[in-house]
Amino acid sequence: DIQMTQSPSSVSASIGDRVTITCRANQSIISYLNWYQQKPGKAPEVLIYAASSLQNGVPSRFSGSGSGTDFTLTISSLQPGDFATYYCQQSYSTPTFGQGTKVEFK
Amino acid sequence: QLQLQESGPGLVKPSETLSLTCTVSGGSITSGYFYWGWVRQTPGKGLEWIGTIYYSGDTYYTSSLKSRITILVDTSKNQLSLRLRSVTAADTAIYYCARATGGSYPFGWLDSWGQGALVIVSS
Hints:
Number of helices of chain A: 0
Distance between the termini of chain B: 39 Å
Helix content of chain B: under 10%
Helix content of chain A: under 10%
Largest interface: A-B, 24 and 19 residues
Structural class of chain A: mainly beta
Number of strands of chain A: 11
Largest sheet of chain B: 7 strands, mixed
Order of helices and strands of chain B: EEEEEEEEEEE
Oligomer: heterodimer
């Protein structure tokens, strides 16, 4: 299975901050990379699919980039509802997820 | 609005079979644009893709669980189901059903999820 490694595992940030989360695959997954947000007690929700496509209804402050093995999720200006855990997931082969990045209030 | 709802026992004894049902409402499970999957989440292993099914009955199972799982679809009830045999404590998790989409069947991204069902394996 393809291994997905996210960094950092947690980040402390303030409202209005720009936050960047990185996801690395141990082999090329082209652009088969998706990002999810999960809040406590809730199911994950897809934010970005195919590396850079914004899911319907997701605010434009979320963006994704990358291809091959290295990918980035960026929140351009952190809002109160963005404090959550973020996961990447590859869909190039049997889907696997990153271990998660928790965005906490500084 | 599409809704998915998992149901089933919250407690299963070791060596027995875990059985969950996912009822889909607000949309048809036979929509050709989508397929359906099960994912579980544990504090230790995180999110784990279990398997995927198309409304035709075609399935894909993750290799680590393939020998123990069966995923079925009942189009007349707009439901999918998961059976996991010979469970151990390591199968304790929150189990989610979800709708999958994207051109890379049986893989893709999950654009709609159930609320999740906590299943504890314990005697």
